[in-house]
Design a protein that fits this description.
single chain; alpha/beta; Arc Repressor Mutant, subunit A; D-Maltodextrin-Binding Protein, domain 2; eight-stranded mixed sheet; 11 helices; elongated
Amino acid sequence: MFRLEQLAYLVATAEKGSLNKAAKALYLSQPALSKQLALLEKQLGCRLFHRKRTGIELTEAGRYLYERASLILEQVEETVAGIKRFSEQQRLRIGALPSVANHYLPERVAAYTAGEAGKVALVVKDTSEELTALLEEGTVDAVLVQNRAGDAPFLTRPLLHESYLAVLPADHPLAEKEAVDFAAFCREPLLIHRDPCDIREDFRRQCRRLGVQAAHLLELDFNDSLLAYAAMGNGLTIVPEMAAASLGDKGLVVRPFCQPFGRTISLICHPGAVREAVRLCEAETGEPSSPRSAE
């Protein structure tokens, strides 16, 4: 039997008159939306759309289903709004990577929960793979992951792209340069995140891309430990751009790489949670957004 999400896809596509426009409105890729509509047609045993160069048009069966689907979705929305009255506060369950939980979410969660929105339950995991597994299991409503997109019926919205920065003692010779050569960086003793870790995987990917191998690695578990060890002169490390402000007065400086590499942070969420999850991520923090918003 078809799902409510598929009815929502059909209504949006009919109202937009274009798969491309509907996919953007739903935060889906066009192929994913096409796949879901084709599955709906297969489940119902009839064509719902005429696909033309100028867009799409509903068939007679499509118009019949569109009218009823619109009513069904309207009733569901009214029911959900009504049931909220029986709960004092709604709780948005969101998962995030450690760096995102520590440096991106705190002010947004504070701004979100200061209004009339509900509470936030936060789950932190070391990898995007672990987070998407929680989403698929239904343990969380939304996740903030890096370099990853969700499969239907989950919706994906890129939030920002940021670079990785070299972290080194202020008196280190490489600190005199405006940008650090990645190969020269890798010849130094390095403090790195222990597996499994998305940041470490991005570091490996950059090494492979440039044909470089790190000479000396000291593995540690937590970002704060990395910075503390770096401040004591035990090695250099990397941090995502959003974490650079946490260096404080530890005698460390950050420098961009001559061969830049970075990550894209995306929101992946259940269709029923997209409105609240987007509201959380767009909550006014009172400070300039950092780093760059993803297009």
